Amino acid sequence: MYVDGSGPKVGSGFFLGEILTTIPLPADEVKRSRAGCGKCSKCMTACPTNAFVGEHVLDARKCISYLTIENKGSIPHELREPMGNRIYGCDVCQQVCPWNKFEWGDIAGSPLFGQVDLSVSAPKLQDLLLMSEDSFLQTFSSSPIKRIGLARFIRNVAVAAGNSRNKLLVPVVEEALRAWAGKDEMVAEHLEWAKSRLMAASGEEEATKKEGTQGGETKGEEQRRTE
Ligand code: SF4
Ligand code: SF4
């Protein structure tokens, strides 16, 4: 992907803008070739939700950036697990694009915004789950995250919590559920989903532990038999 006249080497890190004018400008030719991409398909294979449904064709409804930012409703169940721990946007397809290496190089942190504080790039889910309206507005007062509002934000955090397999989050999710039940059905449903995922993960962990212990006893018994 590249901007005409600049060549592919500039990569894809752009802020888009528009100028409204009455000047009669000639329209650019629309190019739909794979110029610049060659045989590469890294973005298509790296996308966590398989949002690319063909070459140069993106089903935006599957894109995590859409799901976590623009989408005002519920996140489809089948897309929740592949979202992993992304709670606001996704840049995977940008990060894997070889053309971006020229501009972004080996920058640690965000290629577009440079070094980002850990409290922003990797916040603690338990703190986010229990955010109040006031703390949300205060924390994100100068961030675009503010625009999605607290309810959509907690919806996204609930999905990340459900995917975390961290059983220590169960009581936190339950506390969040008490705060949101009766207040916002959509948020409550996502928190319920998170709770059931965490309980299932905790059950699996216990079962694996038990199997390990039983396996150990069997080995011990075998050893005693051969002594
Ligand atoms: S931003 Fe993420 S989810 Fe969206 S198309 Fe790119 S890799 Fe896929
Ligand atoms: S990763 Fe970059 S070069 Fe490769 S197909 Fe995607 S846009 Fe083209």
UniProtKB/TrEMBL annotation:
4Fe-4S ferredoxin-type domain mapped to chain residues: 26-57
Highest taxon above the source species: Eukaryota
Keywords on record: 4Fe-4S, Iron, Iron-sulfur, Metal-binding
One Pfam family matching this protein: Fer4_16
GO biological process: tRNA queuosine(34) biosynthetic process
InterPro entries: 4Fe4S_Fe-S-bd (IPR017896), 4Fe4S_Fe_S_CS (IPR017900), QueG (IPR004453)
Gene3D superfamilies listed in its UniProt record: 3.30.70.20
Region (Disordered): 199-227
Family annotation (SUPFAM superfamilies): 4Fe-4S ferredoxins
UniProt cross-references to PROSITE patterns, sorted A to Z: 4FE4S_FER_1, 4FE4S_FER_2
GO molecular function: 4 iron, 4 sulfur cluster binding; epoxyqueuosine reductase activity
Skewed-composition ranges (Basic and acidic residues): 206-227
Designated name of the protein: 4Fe-4S ferredoxin-type domain-containing protein
Species the sequence originates in: Guillardia theta (strain CCMP2712) (Cryptophyte)
